Amino acid sequence: MIKKLMSNLHAPKWVVFSIDVLIICVSILAGYMLRFNFSFGESIHQNLFYAFALIVPIRIISFVISKTYAGLVRYTSTNDAIRICVTIIIGSVVAACFNFLFVETNLTTKYIPLSVLLIDCVLAVAFMSISRFVVKALYFDYRSHQSSCKNVVIYGANEFALTTKRTLDRDAGTNYHVVAFLDQSHNSVGKSIDGIKVFPLDKLEDLIYTQGVTMLILSEQLPNTKQKQSIIDICLSKNVKVLSTPKVSNWINGELSFKQIRQIKIEDLLERDPIKLDEMEIRKDLVNKTILVTGAAGSIGSEIVRQVAKFNPKTIVIFDQAESPLYDLELELQEKLNFFNFEIVIGSVTDRTRLTAVFEKFHPSVIYHAAAYKHVPMMENNPSQAIQNNVFGTKLLADFAVKYKVNKFVMISTDKAVNPTNVMGCSKRICEIYTQSLNSCFPTKFITTRFGNVLGSNGSVIPRFKAQIEKGGPVTVTDPKITRFFMTIPEACQLVLQAGTLGNGGEIFVFDMGKSVKIIDLAKKMIKLSGLTLGKDIQISFTGLRPGEKLYEEVLNDKETTLPTSHSQIMVAKVREYDFAQVSEQINQLIGLVKCGDNFKIVGMMKRIVPEFKSENSVYEVLDNNREQDCNTAEISQNNKELPKNQNHKTNQVFLNNSTVVSIGKKFSLMR
Q: Which burial class, exposed, middle or buried, applies to 380 when counting CB atoms under 10 A from its CB (0-12, 13-18, 19+)?
C-alpha cells in the first residue's frame, strides 16, 4: 500500500484539502484540551461546538483563497511553510474579530477564549507544515532506496564533505543517496557525520561492492596527488563515476550548488603536487620592468602573460600576429585579472621593421620568446616555414635583444629538440644553439627552457580525443606503444618564470616532467571518464606514426647530463658550447636556402648543423641513408689506396644524385 502511494504521481488536491480540514479540527480540539487541562464541562462543550462553527468555515475560505492545498506535497519547501503560516495567522485574526463582534452585538452568549485561538493557530501551523515535510521525507527515503537511485561515497570528513552531502540532499532532482564518507584521518574513521559513517580509504573497493556505489565525489579538501590518482584509478576500474567540488571561492553566494559539482577531467589524473615558487626572486626579476612576450596569443604565451601580471611589471608588451586571440586575452586581463599595464602589439617575429618599432618604443628588460610553429607533421611538410618562423624569427629577436641591451632572453624550447627526428624539433634545437652561442659574446643572458607536451594546448592530443569521443569515435591513436610527457600549462609557465631567475646565461633548463604516459592509456581513461565502454560504445583505432613522429620523447641528448638546481623540479643540462661565428655562418646559409624552396636542401643543411638529427617516418630519411653511405664510401676509399680521389668524389656524387631522392624530392621541393 505504502509502495503504491509513494510511487503514485501525486495525491489529488481534494485529498490534500480534506486532510488540511481534518488537521484544523484536531488543532481546535487540542487547543481547548490544553487550555482547560483536559477537563470538559457542559459549557465548554457548547463553546467547542461554537468554535468549530466559526473557525472551520474561515479556515476553509482562507485555504481556497491562498490555495495551500495546490502544491505537490513531496516537493514542499520553506516558501510553502511560510504561506501556510501566513494563511493560518490571518484566519485566526479574522476569527478573533468575528468572535468579539458576535459577543458585543449579543448574537451569541458563547465565547472562544483568545488563549484557545492562539494555541489553535500555533498547532494548525505546526501540524500542517510537519505533515507535509513528513510526507516529503518518506517520499525521498523511498526514492533513495529504489534501483534508479545512485549510491554515493564522498571523500572527506570535514565541513566541505558535509556541505557536499547536504547539497545532494536538498536538491530534489538529483536522486543521489550518500552511503559513506571516506577519510585518511584516524580521528575521523568510525565516527558518523550527519548519520553517515566514516570509513578508511582502504575500504573503498569493499564499499563499491557491498553498497553498489556508482559515484564518488571528491570534496574541496583533496588528498595529495598520489592518493587522488589512486582513488580515481580504483573508481575507473570499477566503472564508478568520479566528480569533484569547486574551490570555496567559486561557490555561488557562498553556497555550493549541485550543478557546480563537475565530473573529473583527464587533467586531474595527470596533475602533480603543486609547484613551490621562489616568488621573491621572480618578483625581483619582473617588478617595474618592461616584459616582452612573443607568441602571447598562444596557450603558453598567454599563460606566461597571466603569470607575469601577478608580479607588478611596469608594462607587458603582448606580441603576436593572431588578432582574435589577442583581443580575448586583452578582455581577460582587464575584466578578470583587473590588470591594465600592458600593450597589445600585432606583428610577426620575422618582421624586422615591426621589431625595430617595438624595441625603439618599449626597450624591454626581459623577453619570453614563445612564438614558434610547433605542429610536427605540418612542419615536416613545410620545412622552409619552420626555418623562416622558428629559426629566422628567433635569430632576429635575439639579435635585437643584443642590440638593445635586453637583460634576459628566455626561450621556450621543447623536448622534441633532443635527438630530433623531425623538422620542427631540429628547428628548435638550432634556435637553442644560436642563443647559446650569443651568450658567450654579449652581456644579454640567454636562457633556454625545455619541456614536453602541455595539457590543453593548441594542437594537444587531449582536445582531439575529447572531440572524437563527443562524436562517438573512433578515438585515433598513432601507435599502441607511443608515450609522451605531459605538464599542465600553468605548471610549465611557472617553471619558465622560475628558471628565468636561476639562469646566468647559456643554460638549458630541463623541467621534471614526471613519468611518461602511454597515449593509449590516456585515451582509455578519457573514454571511461566520459561514461562510455571501450569496445561497446566506442572504439580505438591505430593510424600509424605521422611524418617526423617518434615513439618516445626524450628530455636530454645522449651526450648531455643534468645538474640539480636550487629548485627540485628544474635541472640544468650540461651541453657542448658552440662558436658564435661558425654557428652564425651556418644559420645564415640555412636561412638563405629558404628562398630557393628546395626542401631537401633545407633539411640537408639542418642535418649538417645538428648531426644527431635523424628523420623518422619521413621522406627525408633518404638523406640519412645517403649520409651513412657517404661515410661508408669514404671509409672504403681511405682503406683502398689504389682508389683515386676523383673516383671517390664521383661515388659520393652518385649517392647525392640518387634517382630515389630526385623522384621523392619533386613532390616536396616546392616552398610550402
A: buried
- Cell readout for 665 is 624530392
3-state secondary structure of 195: coil
404, 362 in Cβ contact below 8 A? no
The torsion region of residue 208 among left (phi > 0), alpha (psi -120 to 50) and beta comes to: alpha
Higher pLDDT, 20 or 441: 441
Q: Catalytic one among 241, 374, 395, 416?
A: 416
- How much is the CA Rg of the chain, to the nearest whole Å? 38
Cell representation of residue 594: 629558404
Nearest of 44, 26, 43, 22 to residue 35 by alpha carbon: 44
**φ, ψ (nearest 5 deg) of residue 29:** -60, -45
Question: What is the Cα–Cα distance from 507 to 448, expressed in whole angstroms?
Answer: 6
Neighbouring CB atoms inside 10 A of 473's CB total: 17
For domain 147-264, is the CATH number 3.40.50.10580?
no
Span between the terminal Cα atoms of the chain, in Å? 78
Q: What is the pLDDT of residues 160-192, one digit of tens each?
A: 788 777 777 776 555 778 888 888 777 778 788
Lookup: cell for 507: 643554460
Q: Determine the pLDDT at residue 524.
A: 86
φ and ψ at residue 544, rounded to 5 degrees: 90, 150
Mean pLDDT of 406-414: 93
pLDDT of residue 458: 63
Grid cell locating 296: 602571447
Q: Which residues have CB under 8 Å from 273's CB, separation 6+?
A: 224, 225
DSSP run (H or E) holding 498: helix 489-502
Task: Output the pLDDT for position 519.
Answer: 87
Q: Give me the amino acid identity at 193.
A: I
* Amino acid type, 494: Q
Q: Which residues pair with 197 in a beta bridge?
A: 192
pLDDT in tens, 354-369: 999 999 999 999 999 9
Q: What are the DSSP calls for 574-621, one per residue? A: E-----HHHHHHHHHHHHHHTTTT-HHHHHHHHHHHSTT---SSSTTH
Backbone angles phi, psi at 343, to 5 degrees: -130, 130
Domain limits, the chain: 2-143, 147-264, 279-580, 581-668
CA distances from 114 to 28, 46, 121, 123 (A): 12, 16, 10, 14
pLDDT for 613: 92
The 3-class SS string of 285-336 reads HHCCCEEEEECCCCHHHHHHHHHHHCCCCCEEEEEECCHHHHHHHHHHHHHC
147-264 against 279-580: fold identical: yes
Rounded Cα gap, residues 219 and 198, in angstroms:
14
Residue 416 appears among annotated catalytic residues: yes
Q: Write down the pTM of the prediction.
A: 0.65
> What would the CATH number be for the domain defined by 279-580?
3.40.50.720
Rounded Cα–Cα distance for residues 29 and 40 (Å)? 11
